[in-house]
Amino acid sequence: MLDKLLDLQNRIFGTKHFRLKSTAAVAFLVAACLSTLGTLTYIGVIDSSQYQVSGLTVVQKGTGLDVRWDKEDCDGYEVFLFENGQRPKAIQAKTNSCRLELEELGKDYRIVVTAKGKGGSVAGAEAKTVATEKVEQKIHTPQESFAGFEGKEDVVEAKAKEKVNFESSNEKVVAVAEDGTLEYRQPGEAEISITAEEGEQYKEGEKTVEVTVFPEVLDTPKAEIEETRDLDVTLKWSHVDFAQKYLLLKKDPAGDGDYDVIDEFDGDTEATDLTRDNAAYAIVAQATVEDETVESEPSKEVKVKSASADAESYSRYNNLMTLDKSNLELVANVDGLGGATVPQSMSLKDGNFVISYASHSGSVGALVTYDQEGNRIGERSVSGMGHANGSTYNPNTGKIYTVKTHKAIRSKSCTTFGGDDFDESETFSLPRTTSGIAYDTSNNKYYLSKGNELYVTDTDFNVEKFIWKKIRYNHAQDIGASNGVALVCTWVSGNESYIDMYRVSDGAYIGGYSVPIGEIESVVVVDKHLVLLMNNSGGGNVDQILRTVDPVALP
User: Fold this and answer.
1) In what order do the strands lie in the sheet with 342-349?
2) Does domain 145-214 have CATH number 2.60.40.1080?
3) 312-548 — its CATH code?
4) In this structure, are strands 509-515 and 496-503 parallel, antiparallel, or unpaired?
5) What is the CA angle 404-409-415, rounded to 5?
6) What is the pLDDT of residues 412-441, one digit of tens each?
7) What is d(CA 259, CA 262) in angstroms, rounded to the nearest whole number?
8) CATH, range 223-304
9) Closest to 419 (Cα-Cα) out of 440, 400, 392
10) Helix, strand or coil, per DSSP, at residue 123
11) How far apart are the C-alpha atoms of 73 and 69, rounded to whole Å?
């Protein structure tokens, strides 16, 4: 039988190469026979059927083959790898699996597994042919995009299994050398195509990275008013290449004349709505490149005029309600102290109403407190108040802030008094002449008014927002505050008074209340009820605190 196998080997491989002279050689011959003739069962040749190889699977993973078969109780296995008729490569396997690394992919391989029986004899074999494919080749770069200024350089550090090559889609913008060095030539956008060459194991690989070359200074946007409405306007600006965002600048007439950044928009935004507040605006384009900020020059100044006296929203006054004896209830008839007999303003302190009084000359002042039942619970003559047209209480500081005015009915001087003892604390200057003042607990801001001006400050009285509105008779008596809304008290003449409401976040006019019962001096809000301080209420020589019977429309 061995002679017959040797003779078969000679006919398959020829006698020039080698001869099999041992039992191991027989195993090699079996594999060769399987390669040529297909799967062959040797039960008729070697009586070892209990060791027959079965369940052979061959799977390509990466650049090699994972070979696995059913485990048998034998002395081991030999695995043969045939490549295009070349001599097979053989490895020894103790278990029922092995890994075959391949130097070349994209062709067929034949795998033969033989089992060695007890004592070294060949017990059985099985063969499979598998088609392999070259592996996808990935290209790795430290980043997916590059950005820099014209005249600068950078490097694409591309890594792959095979040699990489580079090509620019626009060499006027960026050129690329064989080693991946980028030369930024002029502002623009381009792509760098990276190609990894095909190898014996890997397919050709491709990757693209984006390159943006920035100018040292961005183009200046053009800004203009696109549409004007009653209370606001639409500001639009031209698109600027490479801009990642736009900055909105404002020159506030209540400020120092410099521009301040008040808002920013992403690079896709090209318009915004602005309150008509008699200010000047400009737009700046901006981008960040390698942690360096590059900007445009500010656009040409765009002036936004305030709403005129005959604007629709003012000529058609939005009267939410008329407040009179039918829907107001009396809290108290009030009086001053000594020669300070003219009520000027009212503050809300710990649920009680503190009224500031002054003489017509402004030489005498007083602070008088009433509770919500109308009881007079405190009074004190104070100096340094002047003809106070505005006062407010700040619970955080525990002080009453009064605008110290005289004949001009407005001033830049503010005097504070202790909320408990009414002792004078300090006097300081306000940023602008003022007649009304209110503190809003909801946002920790002060609202101040003068004429047809309304402005918002922080707790150090730095102006943050300025609203230029036509407030009826061009004079604000005093101002109240409630949940981000300024309530401006205006007295025209006789019994004609009004409370106009403005949302301070955007300056929008909300509406108001007509108060045709006398000269309104001040207003505060208690649980959605308006509480009014009226001078000569009802046309008579009576000063009163009046409260709305029902809650009213308030934000």
Assistant:
1) 342-349, 352-358, 365-370, 376-382
2) yes
3) 2.120.10.30
4) antiparallel
5) 10
6) 888 899 988 888 888 898 888 888 999 999
7) 9
8) 2.60.40.10
9) 400
10) strand
11) 13
